[in-house]
């Protein structure tokens, strides 16, 4: 069996991050900051966010979840092989690589109390923050959002005013743009963010977006 055939059967899965993952997580966030700067969005994360103490706090609180696969031993895996939708499996792969990161919080987010707009509802929700892709595999952000919707049901998040790529992914995944929120003042990063919510009762995306979503999950 060829390496490509082997890779076609490789799975993606989620697991909680541990202290052993710190260096990898920091590297992925560094890559994400660079991509934001190159994409004309230099002030969402600046050059330092998230700081090391924030990364450690997320890990210690079991907030950080990694999207991984077992394809690190394949020299040039195909970017478009089909795979099953990832689920939470608390294990490390023999040839694991991290392809996506995000942090999950179930308590009300204090920065979401005031919004220039309207949230979809006032029900309990889960917040996802610090979404980042390592650039090693495609559709990582879409997988994170798909799993979050299925797992938590009512999900809120925010992104930068100039982060048009993430805005597109969120809207393709059926998230509703609810307005703007104000983050705490920071000299290096912008404090106005675009707020999104998905609660399972929003309108489904248009036909092209549904097709894009199927490709994100299965392509």
Q: How is the quaternary structure best described?
A: single chain
- CATH architecture, by name, is 3-Layer(aba) Sandwich
Order of helices and strands: HEHHEEEEEHEHEEH
Strand order of the largest sheet: 3-1-2-4-6-7-9-8-5
The biggest sheet, with number of strands, parallel, antiparallel or mixed sense and barrel status, is:
9 strands, mixed
The first-level CATH class name: Alpha Beta
- How many domains? 1
Global Rg:
17 Å
CATH topology: the name is: Aminopeptidase
Number of helices: 6
Provide the structure class: alpha+beta
Name the beta content range.
15-25%
- The averaged pLDDT comes out at 87
General shape: globular
Amount of helix:
25-40%
Number of strands: 9
**CATH homologous superfamily descriptor:** Gcn5-related N-acetyltransferase (GNAT)
Provide a descriptive summary of the structure in words:
- The protein is of the alpha+beta class.
- Helices cover 30% and strands 24% of the residues.
- It is built from six helices and nine strands.
- A nine-stranded mixed β-sheet has the order 3-1-2-4-6-7-9-8-5.
- The longest helix has 17 residues.
């Amino acid at each position: 069996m060829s390496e490509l055939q082997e890779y076609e059967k490789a799975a993606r899965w989620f697991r909680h991050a541990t202290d052993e993952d710190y260096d990898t997580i920091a590297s992925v966030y560094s890559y994400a900051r660079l991509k934001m700067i190159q994409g004309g969005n230099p002030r969402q994360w600046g050059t330092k966010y998230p700081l090391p103490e924030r990364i450690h706090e997320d890990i210690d609180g079991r907030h950080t979840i990694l999207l991984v696969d077992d394809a690190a031993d394949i020299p040039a895996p195909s970017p478009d092989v089909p795979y099953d939708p990832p689920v939470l499996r608390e294990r490390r792969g023999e040839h694991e690589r991290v392809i996506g990161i995000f942090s999950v919080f179930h308590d009300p987010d204090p920065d979401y109390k005031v919004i220039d707009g309207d949230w979809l509802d006032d029900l309990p929700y889960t917040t996802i923050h610090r979404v980042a892709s390592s650039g090693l595999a495609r559709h990582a952000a879409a997988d994170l959002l798909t799993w979050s919707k299925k797992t938590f049901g009512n999900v809120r998040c925010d992104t930068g005013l100039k982060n048009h790529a993430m805005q597109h992914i969120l809207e393709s995944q059926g998230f509703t743009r609810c307005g703007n929120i104000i983050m705490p003042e920071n000299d290096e990063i912008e404090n106005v963010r675009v707020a999104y919510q998905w609660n399972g009762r929003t309108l489904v995306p248009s036909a092209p977006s549904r097709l894009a979503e199927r490709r994100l999950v299965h392509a």
